[in-house]
Amino acid sequence: MSLDEKLIPIKIGFYKMVNSFFETIAQFFGYPENTGMPILYNYEIPDGVFDLNSLPTHKSSWPLVLKVRTLFEVFFGSLPKVKTVPRYIYENKEEGFYNFYIKNYKNIFFLPDGVSEFIQVRLNICLDISLLETIREVLFIGLMIFIQLIVLRIALGWFLSINPYRFPYSLLLSAVDWAEDLFQGLIPTVFGLNITSSIVLLGLGQIGDSLNHLVFTMPFLPSEAEEAKMLINNEMKDVLVFHYLPVLWYKHPIPNNIREFWYNERPDILEYMQAAYKDLEIQFLPDSIIKQLNLNQQSDLVSQSSGMHDYLEYLSTETLFQSNDFVNYINLIHNNFHNFVLNHINSLL
């Protein structure tokens, strides 16, 4: 008889003991007459209500499947890599040039709208998200390395011949023990065993796995996502679509480097933006062109003002000349009238 067969009566006895324990507790709540909440079979989702459970799960594998490609990986193994949700970019005449969609999963998440807006407006990270991707990958690799150091630290405790407080093992303790000391007072012991390291490993692993499911939506805000269905590889898939004009490009000025790119290298995008969103009073021209246009308008105004000044000066001269002729004419009439009056008086005398 094998060991497993000998343990079968013990397993059955344990199951019966647990079952009896829960039945005893349930009797205080009216069991077996009160069977608890009813179970709905073949439950149908009402129309207009989105069923999150119907979505697939975005999976990330750890430890990684070893695929040796370089000499470094021959000796040290494969480096950890994030497995992110891919973005599929597309463009058309109706929706514009900066549209993309992602497959919808139940375990993906996004940055809050406020954080995404701060990154785009204040840090000017809008279209090129390579920096964010690099930061995520560095964090992921750092977490995975730190997890392996904690595992190595735990493994040292199994070797009684090794004194972990002597060099070089003390370097390992200095690198990882601070995390255990940080949570030592928060996590209680279980049956006299310290489970702090296990809880820390669980938390770090969850954070590292979550980095695989984080989606960056620049230049859109996460709240601009629209749920839709799309035929992908002859299968209908649930997707999240980000399209049309990003709301941040309406609330805030479009980054000047993007407008420079449109004007110098992609005039087709500039023409589309100006034609499609001409009623929104958005500035699509780069700052340098706007400045040049303002200078041209100012020079035109100066030219017009100088021409007007010359005209006014000419007009004032003409008016003065005409006014002098008028005075001379009045004087002539006055002199003639004066001579006429004197001659008439003399004749009467």
Keywords:
single chain, 349 residues, alpha+beta, four-stranded antiparallel sheet, two-stranded parallel sheet, 10 helices
The helix/strand series, from N terminus to C terminus, equals HHEEEHHHHEEEHHHH
Taking the alpha carbons of the first and last residues, their distance comes to 175 Å
Strand element count:
6
Query: How does the overall form come out from the CA principal axes?
Result: elongated
**Percent range for helical residues?**
40-55%
Please identify the structural class as seen in this structure. alpha+beta
Uncertain segments: none
- As laid out across the biggest beta sheet, the strand order is 1-2-6-5
- Count of runs of 4 or more consecutive helical residues: 10
The chain-level mean pLDDT equals 81
Biggest sheet record: 4 strands, antiparallel
Please report which band the strand proportion falls in: under 5%, 5-15%, 15-25%, 25-35%, 35-45% or over 45%. 5-15%
CA radius of gyration: 42 Å
What can you see in these coordinates?
By secondary structure, the chain is α+β, with helices and mostly antiparallel strands. It is 53% helix and 9% strand. It has helices at 3-27, 71-76, 113-121, 130-156, 169-183, 196-212, 248-251, 256-264, 267-276, 287-348, and strands at 88-92, 96-103, 109-110, 214-215, 226-232, 235-242. The strands form two sheets. Strands 1-2-6-5 form a four-stranded antiparallel sheet. The longest helix is centred in the last third of the chain and has 62 residues, at 287-348.
